[in-house]
Design goal:
Blueprint (H helix, E strand, L loop, with lengths): L2 H14 L6 H27 L6 H19 L3 H23 L4 H21 L1 H4 L5 E2 L6 E3 L2 E3 L4 H23 L2 H11 L1 H6 L4 H27 L1 E2 L6 H14 L6 H17 L5 H15 L3 H12 L1
Antiparallel strand pairs: 1-4, 2-3
Helix pairs in contact: 2-7, 2-10, 2-11, 2-12, 3-4, 3-5, 3-10, 4-10, 7-10, 8-10, 11-12, 11-14, 12-13
């Protein structure tokens, strides 16, 4: 099937779907879009730069807290709230990335984990500002201001379409990045950093650029999640949250651009399904994901494309 036709069918299905299902499924699908953006932003590091970060939850959480605190203490406008969350994640990623990109491989991964743990500790301990381990609840979802018209996002379907458009645009921007000269330089760094540096590529600078971009979009995902859930807690910054985009990328296929999107859908929907069936859902979810990763080392998208190539 032609790729453009396939994308058109998927787009049409996503537009019609919220009118055919309950609000519970609308909420769940909205969360899938957010996780897809989170995983795709992470894959800019893993799949295209060759860096595995165990600290992406820090920027996700900072985006969520920045947006929530903006609404709670300063302004209830939508764009300033999202802007503060994304801006805070961007600055944090720039600062932490500057320190992390000096090392690679295991050292890079452990350093990102260490910084993420520091952010978690700050959020957890700063009870007067962040609510500590109680989190912040009851965050009202602002209206969408469009010139002189206001659209309420309180309706689950309205917010579904808002997140769908914003996530799709963000994924498209990331797609353009990986197919730009910047993206090819990042892939050169991934394939052979020493050779890239030998021909004049500023390897550390481009790693920092990728790290900052990934943090920016992770912050946007966190900001959208905060508005979806209406509640945030320090668990958003915990190290286990950083494992989510890693698992999604591996399940979907981190060597394929849309692999993390597929992985996010599989992981989120499977997690919800199993959790409604048994109290031991973590065991069964882990077992299923283990089988998928072992059976499909290139992920679901990699397996599909390899099969289509054989045909």
């Amino acid at each position: 099937m032609n790729r453009k036709i396939l994308y058109g069918i998927i787009g049409a299905a996503l537009i019609v779907l919220p009118f055919l299902v309950t609000n519970y499924w609308v909420f769940l699908l909205t969360d899938v879009f957010i996780m897809a953006l989170f995983a795709t932003s992470f894959n800019l590091l893993l799949g295209y730069t060759g860096l595995i970060s165990f600290g992406q939850a820090a920027y996700y959480a900072v985006g969520a807290y920045g947006t929530t605190l903006m609404i709670k203490y300063f302004s209830s406008s939508l764009w300033p709230a999202i802007g503060l969350g994304v801006g805070a994640a961007f600055v944090l990623a720039l600062v932490i990335g500057y320190l992390c990109v000096r090392v690679t491989r295991l050292y890079f991964a452990m350093l990102t984990l260490a910084f993420s743990s520091m952010i978690y500790a700050i959020i957890f301990k700063w009870r007067g500002f962040t609510g500590g381990d109680d989190g912040i609840a009851g965050v009202a979802r602002p209206s969408l201001d469009f010139f002189f018209i206001k659209f309420s996002l309180a309706n689950p379907k309205a917010y579904y379409f808002f997140v769908l458009v914003l996530a799709a645009l963000s994924v498209w921007v990331l797609w353009r990045i990986v197919r730009s000269p910047l993206g090819y330089l990042l892939q050169a760094n991934r394939d052979n950093a020493k050779r890239a540096e030998f021909i004049g590529v500023a390897v550390k600078r481009f790693r920092l650029i990728a790290f900052t971009i990934a943090g920016f979009f992770a912050g946007l995902a966190g900001s959208l999640y905060a508005l979806l859930a209406g509640f945030i807690s320090p668990e958003l910054a915990f190290w286990t949250k950083s494992a989510d985009p890693v698992i999604m990328s591996m399940v979907g296929g981190f060597n394929r651009f849309f692999g993390p999107v597929v992985g996010a859908a599989i992981y989120s929907l499977l997690k919800d399904f199993i959790a409604t069936k048994t109290e031991n859902w973590m065991f069964y979810l882990g077992l299923i994901l283990l089988v998928v990763v072992l059976a499909l080392p290139q992920g679901v998208m990699g397996a599909i494309q390899r099969r289509r190539g054989k045909v």
